[in-house]
Design goal:
The chain has 90 residues and is of the alpha+beta class. It has a single domain, classed as Alpha-Beta Plaits. 23% of the residues lie in helices and 22% in strands.
Length: 90
Amino acid sequence: MKIEDKLFLDRFRVEEESHLKITDADKCKQCEDQPCLNLCPANVYRLEDGCIMVNYEGCLECGSCRIACPKLNIDWNYPRGGFGISHKFG
């Protein structure tokens, strides 16, 4: 089974407010490598007009982004209870 097939089994209950926030957009512009763009397995972060945008709806809640950010510029929390990702194994 391919990883895409396994990810398809995941279900998301999206909260209206993001549980991921860029603390200071200027810090992201100063970051040379911008590892959040490449490290996130769900491609939650994307570069748009020189700014990093957050697509929190597809977050796998792995926490990789907060660990990888060299500027410690991502405010990462779990979604409220009942929201976020539900993993199905099969």
